[in-house]
């Protein structure tokens, strides 16, 4: 069996049902879908998404990323996206290994294995696709195989995760990860501001507040924020608000007006306009549709 077919087998056995499944390995989840899914909002945190079978589309700030087993996705910041499985069937379901990025291990590896300095003042994008190498699949198989021998996870999983991070750092798409590992990089400064924003998005925070957290001037912050997220800071905040409002309406049956108010909107009409612009339909109609369809949560 090739590394890819072995990974398909491992994920199939440990994620027998559709959905996103946590595992006994810290920071590792497995995703499965036996059919294409509707686009659903989710906030990606720093993570690696390695597809073994099927295909997925992720939209962030108007940019579309379509990937499968030939390429992996890395999210380097907390970023709201719309994600949908676009290729999957009962016979060949979508299967994906999701790994949370360990910043301590990543930073240590970056110091041990330095690369030529990147002189670009522009931070890397918050989401990137890169070609998947055979070595990366082999490392992923070594990690996933530990699910068959849970007694070895505590000792061997950190080594397998470290190998995966090493493959990412030394592969062709290492730029974003090296910027993420560098505490002084523009990407890390933007990531710090985004983390603050996720805790304050229901408030009337200003761009100046976010820029101060990032340690940048207002104009510099706005430029670098858009380079990383493909969104302006205020558009990013709006998407966080609207995704949370959708969750409140679907999961807690909160009515549209109350949901808009709870996420920071003072005007119901403005909430409805922004919601329709992002999701394509009015909030109450969208909530009814999603409750009926009962979408499967996937990374």
From TrEMBL:
InterPro entries: Homeodomain-like_sf, HTH_AraC, Tscrpt_reg_HTH_AraC_N. SMART domains: HTH_ARAC. GO terms for molecular function: DNA-binding transcription factor activity; sequence-specific DNA binding. It comes from the Bacteria. It holds the Pfam family AraC_N. Keywords: Transcription, Transcription regulation. The keyword Oxidoreductase does not apply. Residues 191-289 form the HTH araC/xylS-type domain. Signal peptide: none annotated. PANTHER family: ARAC-FAMILY TRANSCRIPTIONAL REGULATOR, TRANSCRIPTIONAL REGULATORY PROTEIN. This is Exoenzyme S synthesis regulatory protein ExsA. It comes from Pseudomonas graminis.
């Amino acid at each position: 069996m090739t590394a890819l077919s072995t990974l398909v087998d491992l994920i199939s056995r440990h994620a027998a049902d559709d959905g996103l499944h946590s595992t006994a390995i810290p920071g590792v989840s497995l995703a499965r879908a036996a059919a294409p899914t509707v686009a659903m909002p989710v906030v990606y945190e720093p993570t690696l998404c390695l597809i073994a079978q099927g295909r997925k589309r992720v939209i962030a700030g108007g940019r579309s990323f379509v990937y499968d087993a030939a390429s992996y996705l890395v999210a380097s910041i907390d970023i709201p996206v719309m994600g949908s499985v676009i290729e999957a069937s009962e016979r060949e379901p979508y299967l994906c290994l999701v790994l949370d990025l360990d910043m301590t291990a990543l930073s240590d590896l970056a110091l041990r294995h330095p690369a030529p300095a990147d002189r670009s003042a522009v931070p890397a994008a918050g989401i990137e696709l890169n070609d998947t190498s055979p070595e990366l699949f082999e490392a992923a198989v070594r990690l996933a195989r530990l699910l068959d021998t849970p007694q070895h996870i505590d000792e061997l999983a950190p080594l397998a995760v470290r190998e995966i991070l090493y493959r990412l750092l030394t592969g062709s798409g290492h730029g974003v990860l090296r910027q993420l590992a560098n505490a002084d990089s523009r990407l890390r400064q933007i990531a710090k501001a985004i983390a603050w924003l996720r805790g304050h998005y229901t408030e009337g925070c200003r761009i100046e507040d976010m820029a101060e957290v990032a340690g940048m001037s207002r104009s510099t912050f706005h430029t670098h924020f858009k380079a990383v997220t493909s969104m302006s800071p205020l558009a990013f905040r709006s998407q966080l608000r609207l995704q949370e409002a959708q969750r409140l309406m679907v999961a807690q049956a909160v009515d549209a007006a109350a949901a808009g108010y709870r996420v920071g909107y003072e005007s119901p009409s403005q909430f409805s306009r922004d919601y329709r612009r992002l999701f394509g339909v009015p909030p109450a109609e969208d909530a009814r549709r999603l409750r009926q369809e009962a979408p499967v949560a996937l990374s």
